Automatic annotation (TrEMBL):
GO cellular component, as recorded: cytoplasm
MF terms (GO), sorted A to Z: L-serine hydro-lyase (adding indole, L-tryptophan-forming) activity; pyridoxal phosphate binding; tryptophan synthase activity
Residue stretches spanning the membrane: none
Top-level taxon of origin: Bacteria
Species this chain originates from: Ktedonosporobacter rubrisoli
PANTHER family with a match to the protein in the record: TRYPTOPHAN SYNTHASE, TRYPTOPHAN SYNTHASE-RELATED
Subunit organization: Tetramer of two alpha and two beta chains.
Pfam families (UniProt xref): PALP
Protein name (record): Tryptophan synthase beta chain
Pathway where it operates: Amino-acid biosynthesis; L-tryptophan biosynthesis; L-tryptophan from chorismate: step 5/5
Residues that bear N6-(pyridoxal phosphate)lysine: 115
Amino acid sequence: MPDNQHIKYLLSEDEIPRAWYNIMADMPNPPLPVLHPGTKQPVTPADLAPLFPQALIMQEVSTERYIEIPEPIRQVYRQWRPSPLYRARRLEKALDTPARIYYKYEGVSPVGSHKANTSVAQVFYNQQEGVKKISTETGAGQWGSALAMAGTLFGVDIEVFMVKISYQQKPYRRSMIQAYGATVHASPTDLTDAGRSILAKDPENQGSLGIAISEAVEVAAKSGGTIKYSLGSVLNHVLMHQTVIGEEALLQMAQADDYPDVVIGCAGGGSNLAGLVFPFIGENFRKGTKTRFLAIEPMSCPSLTKGTYAYDFGDTIGMTPLLKMHTLGHDFIPPGIHAGGLRYHGMSPLVSQLHAEGVIEARAYHQNAIFEAATIFARNEGIIPAPETAHAIKAALDEALEAKAAGQERVILFNLSGHGHFDMQAYDAYFSGKLQDYEYPAAAIEEAQKKLPQVV
Ligand SMILES: *Cc1c(COP(=O)(O)O)cnc(C)c1O
């Protein structure tokens, strides 16, 4: 029986996981290879060497179940990990539901989201291999600020290509990146061929994550080995670094003497979702538990619910290797919703495969609905969630209300991936009734799907 008092479940610093969980060890079917964009043959470690340090390339393809977390990384994790697991008792009461709702709170990191779990790891491995500078992209700025923080901790320079519309509309994330001493540009820029080619066609282009990736990859690829590249989501090693979230949550659910029936995360590139759910999926695979898993995305950028499961580029220009994933098409530019972290045309290959195999379900919601859920949550739990996170909250509320209608004791766990303190402008738009629900952009997606690369 779950205990009937606690609001939060805490672990000591010594209980920070000693290893990340690698789901590739337990998946019934091996993941499909990443393909070279030119030859369409599986990429080799040598192909990836200009972009990533060796340690991360090895992690990307490893099938070891647990990969040890180096002590210097655990040492930095200590600053905010283990993160708390909360039981949402006031929210349960407000909903008058027999469901028990738990959430893992990743907003306690210095940058306010889960992204620091992998930024610290990635910068560490780069520094170990003598890398002095890393380029990256960022949408709303969460990833850029997380990498910038890790860069300053380990003494590695960080150059960030930030999607132009966010650079202009979310100036405080940009300032945060600068506060950590990193360089930040509004993408598309005229610093790269990729940026110049976009601007030549459309000087007013507002940017997208796909374009910013093209720019950051180009900077690393043309640096002659002096600059590496880093990605904040999507890739296997990134998702693996995030599993500290789920490994801790397993211990904390045991502390609560409870176990989830359903585990939920919002999904942009898939990393916070995977971080929480993969360790629980591992339990399903190895122990036969029957937990359900939910990935939640915006209606205007619905890669899992409406995309094609096919090989596609990770960026807009077509420079990255081809990933087998749910994709809306690499040159699809999603409408300017406020959940900037969910505006990505693709989805992590691991999450995509687990969705295709029926292990992870997916749902999509409109932005007004998710802000309504965020507000209900804030008014009962006190925490103001990021708009991305609000997608997971909406699904948790729906699950709790469904349990109520069915008179069921359902145990719900979701990832509160980050706080929304830098997103109050979006809340303002919601409160003043100015938030637009973009319809599913069927025509634009259909057009983008015609440009999927042909792979036999
Ligand atoms: C970046 C971000 C996301 C989306 O990215 P994933 O890789 O899908 O996790 C979700 N929530 C927050 C708070 C973010 O910063």
